[in-house]
Specification:
single chain; alpha+beta; 7-stranded mixed β-sheet; two-stranded antiparallel sheet; 4 helices; elongated
């Protein structure tokens, strides 16, 4: 029994040391400083003015995507992984994210740099990729390098100052009439050949 208790205490202590060895940052973007605005296609879909901040009220979800620091240029979007630093955050105020303190995976030590990207999408689609594939409104920042803090002594800094403003867009889906017109055009071309 004593060995079990000692093993549990050691495991808890090791877990705490590991957690404090990771980097931290504050996932926050202010609509007044680094806004997330809608382009004309997204504005029409959302019923807001072009160039206005994307709406809050839970209509959009934001996540902070991450990749460990690599030599050279920022990684491609496909190398970044979301959801590793806590759950995605529902945007409650127009153009603003207040996702709180996030801890990086163990691949980035406290005080070290890593690559990050902010992505937002319409909440009803469930994920960024689903919004892109399904004709939802979505947007993403440029990939940026950020120095994390080293807890418990380092105070986490917000990413707000390094996230460039970005635009939410919609990839328009072809309408049913457009598909019908293409079908008729193909029919007439085939008929003309015979």
């Amino acid at each position: 029994m004593k060995k079990l208790i000692l093993a549990s205490v050691l495991a808890a202590a090791l877990a705490n040391v590991t957690a404090f060895g990771q980097g931290q940052l504050i996932f926050g973007v202010s609509g007044a400083v680094n806004s997330i605005k809608a382009d004309s296609a997204a504005a029409a879909k959302l019923g807001i003015a072009t160039g206005a901040n994307i709406p809050g009220a839970g209509r959009f979800t934001a996540d902070l995507y991450y990749a460990p620091l690599t030599a050279g240029n920022p990684p491609a979007d496909t190398a970044l992984v979301g959801g590793q630093m806590g759950a995605a955050y529902s945007i409650v105020a127009p153009g603003t994210i207040a996702g709180g303190t996030r801890t990086t995976p163990a691949t980035t030590a406290g005080g070290a740099d890593a690559w990050f990207q902010v992505r937002v999408w319409e909440t009803t689609f469930g994920s960024f990729d689903a919004a892109v594939a399904g004709g939802g409104a979505y947007g993403k920042s440029s990939v940026f390098r950020f120095t994390t803090s080293a807890p418990p002594t380092g105070v986490p800094q917000t990413i707000n100052g390094v996230v460039s403003p970005f635009v939410v867009t919609v990839v328009p889906e072809p309408s049913t009439l457009a598909f019908g017109a293409l079908g008729l055009l193909g029919f007439f071309l085939l008929r003309r050949r015979s």
